[in-house]
Amino acid sequence: MPKFPPNPDRRPAVVTGASSGIGRSTAAALAALGHPVALGARRVADCEDAAVAIREAGGEAVAIHLDLTDDDSVEQFAASAVDTLGEVEIVVSNAAMNMAGAVLDTDASSLDDVLAVNVTGTHRLVRALLPDMISRRRGDVVFVTSDVAERPRPAMAAYVTSKWGLEGYVHSLQMELEGTGVRATILRPGPTMTGMGLDWDPVVTGEIIEQWAAWGFARHSNFMRPDGVAQAVCAVVALPRGVHATVMEIQPEAPIVPPDNEQGGQ
Question: What is the reported pTM?
Answer without folding.
Answer: 0.91
